[in-house]
Each structure stands twice: as C-alpha cells, then as structure tokens.
Specification:
It is a multi-pass membrane protein. Keywords: Cell membrane, Membrane, Transmembrane, Transmembrane helix, Transport. It comes from Pseudomonas mangiferae. The protein is mainly alpha-helical. The chain has one domain. It has 18 helices and two strands. Helix 10 packs across helix 11. The chain is globular and about 60 Å long.
Length: about 450
C-alpha cells in the first residue's frame, strides 16, 4: 500500500488498515450515522418541487451515488482531489433554504437548482486555492450566525411536515401531531438513556419507530413499490438540461463559500483527532474535492456536497482513524444507490415522521451555529448587534415571504433565502464593525489564526 512521502517509521493513523471485519462494521456505522442527513436533503427538495415518490426516490439514489463517489475520492485521494483522511461526504444542509425557494419559482425549478449547483461547484474549484486568504472574512462570528440562520429558517419546513405536509386536508390533525411527537420523543429518550452507537443513530431509530407506527395506522402508501426495479443505474441529466440564472448561481456560490469555511474547520479538527496535521496543501485538496463533488452533482441530479461533521465525531468516539474505513463506507453508499426499492421505501416516509426528526435535526444545526458563536466575542455590543440584525434580516422572508416581493424577480433566490440574507448581512456588518474598524482592534473578533 503506498504511503505518503513524509511518513515516519510508524504509519500515520489514517494510513493504518484494520481487519476486514472491523472495516465493514465501522464503515457500516458511518453509513448509518450519515444516512438520515444524506436522504433528508433530497426529501426536502422533492417535497418542495412536488415530485412524485418515484422521482423523489430517484433523487435519493442520485444523492447516495454522488456521496459515495465523493467519499471515495476524499478518502483515497485521486489526482489533486481528496484530503486522504476518514471523511464522509453528503448533500449539504447549507443550501436547503435557497433551493427550497428556487424549487417553487417559475423558470427555475429543479433544472435551475442543478445549474446553480454546477456553476457553484466550478466557482468553488476556482477559489479553493485561495481559501486561506478568504477565511479571514468568515470568522466564527459570521459562520456561527450563518449556520444558526440555516437551522432557524428550516424550522418552518419541519413544522409543516409535523402537521402532515402542505396540501394535506387534515393538516394539524391529532394523528399527524402524535406521530411527529413519537419520533421526537424517541430521539430524546435515546439520547437520554442510551450511549455510544445508539446515540449516533438516534434520528434513524426515531424515524424507524415512527415509520412502523405509521404503517400500523395505514399512513404509509407503498403502491408502486412492486413496479420499481431492484437495480437501476442513476443516469445523468434525468430531469433535463440544467439552466443557469444569475441570482440562483450567486446564491449557491455564497453557499459554497460557507461550506468551505465549515469544511476547513472540520478538516483541521480531524487532523488533530488523527494526529496528522493538516497542511495548506491538504486543505486545498479537501476543498477541491468538496467543490468537484458539487460540480459533478449538478449533472447527476443532486445538490451541493460537503464533508459531514457528525462522522468526524464518530471517528473520535470509535478511535478508528483509518481512511480505509470511509473507503468501505463510500462503497456501501454506491451500492445503496443502485437499489431503487430501498430509496422508494425512504420516499414513502409520511411527512409527520419527517417532521419529528426535522425538529431535532434542524434544531441541532442551529445549536451548532450557537456553539460556533461562543468562539467569538459575543460580549462586545457591536458583535451582539451583528448577530441580532443578521438573524432578523434572515428571518424576514420566513415570517413574510412577500416582504421583498417588489424587488426585481431575478433576485428572488437571494431575497427568498433567509440563509443568504443572514450571511450577506453578517459579512457586511463584520466588515463594518471589525475588519474596517480602528487600528486598535487588530483582528476580527473570534477570527482563527489557522484560517
């Protein structure tokens, strides 16, 4: 097995290969941990675009395929791509708000989302070598605000699901709310009373129990499952040629920059966990893989991809720090992408089940943003104002979608995205309050020296 040229007498931890059984077990655990998050994005977009279950199942398979291939490239390293560390890749939540807004816009839809994803991936490949300079504009104060906004602006999606989904005649009926509550309570109880592996798959446990209960109540419609093939290869451009519009492209490019900042922090953290310091070259390779995955994803009917933070936590928890574990996990994802019946079952999950899980998942995204904000100087009044105003601006289109309706229509993917508005506001106010401030304030509050 080839080793890096700078290795010591003992192979670095990411280069050590456990036994085959160990690889399979831990690799499968990585898949279980990220599977809920991986399929959540196509489920959200499928519902926002009013796709049939068959088409939503196709989106899920496409997402799993790109996630598996991107994981293999990130873990193995191919050409200039891949950080060669135990990284799992999947569709990023950071773009969900913008894509939900695009899905319902005339002239944009899925083709516009895929076009924006392709353009943003290409943009990401262009800026990846310069991210060390760009990250100073995205200290924890800005990224924490942006990620908090992601969670907050997604809560209406979770609440809509919990009530039974948009267009449901019995929206808010007791059986929908009870089912959502069952899923949420299960997730909370697993986290309270169980440990280790079970905590990491708490969302899957809650959704599985909710799905089973929904089946007993006759809320699961599996008509058409028998007609779905057992094996199907995901073909590119299934929904037609991508389209490119300025505002969707700009909105998604902004998302890619946010993903880069978040991924940079995760790569540095993983370097500490695996005892292999991450160099500027490693960082560039990892970010290029993130951007390349997004570029390819647009052609293969899926969305912007990034490294999954929860799997980095699993590396630390299990102590298995070999990149070959995630190679196995990537192969498992590719295999799952070939099974339409499995994706069809996922696509048949009732909205109420997704709502219970969504409240927990989207809340955790917001909580992650709050945790990042703790690294900034929130005691500073100006920084408090930055967070307050940016979150307020970001919530405006969530509270009143028509608030900015009189602005030019080509701006709608930005003006309808609370995430884009919150991020732009945080960037601008950080420039005003910190970067362009008096010389006495040497660096932006909370800025990382390793950026």
């Amino acid at each position: 097995m080839p080793q890096p040229s700078d290795r010591s007498a003992a192979p670095p931890l990411p280069e050590r290969c456990p036994s085959l059984l160990h690889l399979l077990l831990v690799g499968f655990q990585h898949v279980l941990l990220m599977y809920g998050g991986a399929v959540a994005v196509p489920l959200i977009i499928g519902q926002a675009a009013h796709l049939s279950r068959e088409e939503t199942a196709f989106l899920i398979n496409a997402d799993l395929l790109v996630a598996g291939l991107a994981t293999l490239v990130q873990s193995l390293g191919i050409g200039p791509l891949g950080i060669r560390m135990p990284i799992m890749m999947g569709a990023s939540f950071a773009a969900v708000g913008s894509m939900v807004a695009m899905a319902g816009m005339p002239g944009v839809g899925l083709q516009g989302i895929f076009g924006a994803t392709i353009a943003a991936g290409f943009f990401g490949m262009l800026i990846a070598p310069f991210m060390c300079r760009i990250t100073r504009f995205f200290p924890p104060l800005v990224t924490g605000t942006a990620i908090t906004a992601i969670g907050l602006t997604l809560f209406p999606v979770a609440v809509n699901w919990a009530g039974g989904g948009s267009g449901t005649p019995a929206f808010g009926a007791l059986h929908h709310l009870a089912l959502a509550a069952l899923v949420l309570i299960t997730i909370l109880l697993v986290n309270r009373f169980l440990r280790g592996f079970w905590v990491n798959v708490a969302v899957l446990v809650g959704m599985a129990l909710g799905y089973g209960m929904a089946g007993l109540l006759g809320m699961v419609d599996l008509s058409g499952l028998d007609a779905a093939p057992w094996v199907r290869v995901v073909e590119p451009l299934h929904f037609g040629l991508p389209t490119f519009s300025l505002a969707p492209v700009l909105s998604m490019c902004l998302v890619v920059v946010i993903i880069f900042v978040e991924s940079s922090g995760m790569f540095l953290a993983l370097g500490s966990i695996t005892e292999r310091p991450v160099s500027a070259r490693d960082l560039r390779r990892g970010l290029l893989c993130d951007a390349g995955a997004s570029f390819v994803a647009g052609f293969f009917n899926t969305f912007t991809h990034s490294s999954f933070a929860q799997n980095i936590g699993l590396v630390q928890m299990t102590g298995v720090r070999s990149r070959f574990v995630t190679v196995v996990a990537g192969l498992l994802l590719v295999a799952l992408s070939l099974l339409p019946k499995a994706a069809y079952l996922v696509a048949s999950i009732p909205p109420a089940v997704l709502g219970g899980a969504g409240i927990a998942m989207f809340g955790m995204v917001a909580a992650t943003g709050i945790r990042i904000l703790q690294e900034a100087d929130i005691g500073d009044r100006r920084n408090q104002l930055l967070v307050a105003v940016s979150l307020g601006v970001g919530m405006a289109p969530v509270v009143r979608p028509d608030f900015l309706a009189h602005l030019p229509h080509w701006l709608e993917p930005i003006t309808h995205s609370g995430i884009a508005l919150a991020t732009l506001s945080a960037m601008a106010l950080n420039l005003l309050f910190n970067i362009f401030a008096e010389k006495g304030r040497a660096t932006p509050c909370g800025a990382h020296s390793e950026g």
